[in-house]
Amino acid sequence: MPLSKSDLDAILLTLELASLTTVLLLIIGTPIALWLARTDSWLKRPVGAVVALPLVLPPTVIGFYLLVSMGPNGFFGQLTQSLGLGTFTFTFTGLVIGSIFYSLPFVVQPLQNAFEAIGRGPLEAAATLRANPWDTFFSVVLPLARPGFITAAILSFAHTVGEFGVVLMIGGNIPGKTQVVSVQIYNHVETMNYAQAHWLAGGMVAFSFLVLLTLYSGRSSRMRAL
Amino acid sequence: MIKTLQRSLLALGLVFAGHALADEVKVAVAANFTAPIQAIAPAFEKATGHKLVASFGATGQIYAQIKNGAPFDVFLSADDSTPAKLESEGDIAPGSRFTYAIGSLVLWSADTDYLDGTDKALKAGQFKHLSIANPKAAPYGLAATQVLDKLGLSDAVKSKLVEGQNITQAHQFVSTGNAELGFVALSQVYKDGKVSSGSAWIVPDDMYDPIKQDAVILKQGANNPAAAALVEYLKGPEAAKVIKSFGYKL
């Protein structure tokens, strides 16, 4: 068996992290994307820029600020401590929070594009039929934006699987809790276990290729449907 | 137009050639030796006229880089086994391996009252996180696990251990307060003969295998006069004074 138990644990943990992050991000990202797609507020551009920050910032920057702010002396750390939750560095919860920041633009941007593409027409039509906003959202917006949701989910999942810098900064390399695949690969390389590193790294390449292939095939078939 | 371009290219070439004449030594430095080499570099450059360019990392990581063609002339390792391995694999200038420092391990907290110069707080176990460097990649991490074994605390602290990928990160976890205490290199918290911040327990030497830190001139630097000069300088009295002031033995 080329993969050790700790490798398998790391794979499971990574999948868990990516799934949970994706679900949470779809819930958090949808209202943000809806607002960004609809608003004429002067805040639109600044908020859009903040959402896009993780695209250009090195993960070490996000990781560093998370490490400092979630720590016992940081703002967020003091808040969670006063709520009796302790601090989130070196925990799976901490990684989920970090991943949400890190993958946010990969969910918000495709959703925003999808919502903008719907335009006002269908919404106004729904309104003239006296659909309330919730009804409109679930019966009109959601089905029409489905391709956007699929793209967002795939990108968020894949991007979180590929996360390294943030986890490295706030994780502490704890097996079963924060030791994800990318960190495990780094461990193998650092300790000169190149064969082990190859198995995991090769797996990542194959996985990422399949994800992107799925994404692009889905996109072209959606195009044809139009 | 073309002539101007040719001339400026020529000028550029001359500038680069000029740089190549002023010898430069590229040093891969184990993370624990970051502060000392930064103190040594200006003095070395002043004394010899050569230029020193340092890169920092975990010993295992640097080894991987060297094996894959990283352009280093000299390697200051955090252990003696990695340079020995490089020697047996024919990657160093023959006979260039020597011990430049012997490292000391310290249990350190950023909180000035947390440690009282003994292992009391470690044994009491009233902490949430104990930071160490990855024992598989960093010699100071390995030494930390030996100390925990010796104290019989390995099982008790297992669930509280957090690992930095190198000794710098292990120190960072403690200095940001995310871990209450951690095993770090004495050189990271020691200046001019005393612990310069927080509180500490300097671990007695007999609790872990000596951290003999070896240096080698790599094959790439075999004919670089600046590499030879750096090694000479590291063996000399000025460097020794600096190295000792960071808590290393010689």
TrEMBL record, chain A:
It is a multi-pass membrane protein. GO terms for cellular component: plasma membrane. PROSITE patterns: ABC_TM1. It is found in: Cell inner membrane; Cell membrane. GO terms for molecular function: molybdate ion transmembrane transporter activity. Pfam families: BPD_transp_1. InterPro entries: MetI-like (IPR000515), MetI-like_sf (IPR035906), ModB_ABC (IPR011867). The keyword Cell membrane applies. SUPFAM superfamilies: MetI-like. Belongs to the binding-protein-dependent transport system permease family. CysTW subfamily. This is Molybdenum transport system permease. It comes from Pseudomonas sediminis. The lineage of its organism: Bacteria, Pseudomonadati, Pseudomonadota, Gammaproteobacteria, Pseudomonadales. The gene is modB.
Automatic annotation (TrEMBL), chain B:
Molybdate binds at residues 59, 167. One of its GO terms (molecular function) is molybdate ion binding. The complex is composed of two ATP-binding proteins (ModC), two transmembrane proteins (ModB) and a solute-binding protein (ModA). Keywords: Metal-binding, Molybdenum, Signal, Tungsten. Belongs to the bacterial solute-binding protein ModA family. One of its GO terms (biological process) is molybdate ion transport. PANTHER family: MOLYBDATE-BINDING PERIPLASMIC PROTEIN, TUNGSTATE_MOLYBDATE_CHROMATE-BINDING PROTEIN MODA. The keyword Signal applies. InterPro entries: AvModA-like_subst-bd, ModA, ModA/WtpA. It comes from Pseudomonas sediminis. Residues 1-22 form the signal peptide. This is Molybdate ABC transporter substrate-binding protein.
